[in-house]
Amino acid sequence: MATSASASLSKAVKQQYMELPQGDKVQAMYIWIDGTGEGLRCKTRTLDFEPKSIEDLPEWNFDGSSTYQSEGSNSDMYLVPSAIFRDPFRKDPNKLVLCEVLKYNRKPAETNLRITCKKVMDMVEEQHPWFGMEQEYTILGTDGHPFGWPSNGFPGPQGPYYCGVGADKAYGRDIVEAHYRACLYAGVQICGTNAEVMPAQWEFQVGPCEGINMGDHLWVARFILHRVCEDFGIVASFDPKPIPGNWNGAGCHTNFSTKEMREDGGLKAIEDSIEKLGKRHQYHIRAYDPKGGLDNARRLTGHHETSNIDEFSAGVANRGASIRIPRNVGQEKKGYFEDRRPSANCDPYAVIEALIRTCLLNEEGDQPADY
User: Fold this and answer.
1) Is the bond preceding 146 in cis, omega lying within 30 degrees of 0?
2) Residue ranges of the GS catalytic domain (predicted)?
């Protein structure tokens, strides 16, 4: 099993230093999405006080030419604090700070999808859109081989691993437990976790979150997962189809409701939204992975609990459909629906913005409207 060299450094020695008092200073780790739209970057600054809100935090800058975000001749980019969390690695009073990225001219960077998402969310605030996202991921060694898999072969076929218990079924639970507790400490709205269908594949769920908070909380949960894996010397992959062949891919199923959908008779609003989504399938496929649908094409084959990428479908309790209405929602005639198309490496801001544009702002056609 290939692990990183850093993992062999003594954590006990490090702990001696982490227990030293830090006086009245606070470490704030600024986190941002890089130019790939998938990678996360971070750096830390010292503050003379404990920030209580976003307004307390100063803007900062970084070298965008080293993060695929600018040229070297004009490389300074701005970090604008957008959400604040407790730091589960350095502990209180230290903070994690999720930032938006602006270019030298104060316009949003190409992968800053939060800014338009926020604008769209503000337009439908009174409808109280709630989201819950189910983030699947695969644990890999530093050589890209799935954690716990035989070095020259494959584990037994899928079947015993989903929600499995036991050393021969659950691969890497320590990562999952550490991540779950770190998210709870940080204030991330994590609401559950389970082992997935493919061995070494897991899922955590974040939500329900209202509006823009969905994107903020999922990105920070991903950051925490990467940091936990770094400590253990292994890698978390959000690739939507990490192992080709007869193995499940990884998605980020997105559950969505509005106040109207959650109230008595809300099933009609749910069905209306699904009808609108059916007319705009290609727009959503493009929004649901960072490569405009190319990543998802490897996953959405119509097999392994997925729908076909070229066809739109919906059904009650159907995990082979684009949109699933949970059975209890069909019975109670109110609740939410699940969009099963988003890829594990999607940008949550793009996904939830697309849902709002189509379902609540009644947009049509292949391009988003400009507000």
Assistant:
1) no
2) 113-371
